[in-house]
Please model this.
Amino acid sequence: MMPLFALICRDKPGHLHIRTENRPAHVEWLKAGGNVQFAGPLIEDGEMRGSLVVVEADDLAAAKKWAAADPYAAAGLFASAEVIEWKKVIG
Model:
């Protein structure tokens, strides 16, 4: 099994419309890669305000390259995006 990496993103304030407009392309992109273990939005005050995605990749550089291709990233949605190696222990 390849290493796992967590992509943790926080949306820019007031950019829910960017998330909503780009969500279909983002979801299709996640499905097309074949490397996503799980993914979903971060919720704050009942509203989507970020993303958590865990992916398999050869190394950190490959995971960062993959994350940069996210339609949300291309649309300028994120105020911050972190990619860090992650180890599954339970689940």
In short: Strands lie at 4-11, 36-44, 47-56, 78-86. The helical segments are 16-33, 60-68, 71-74.
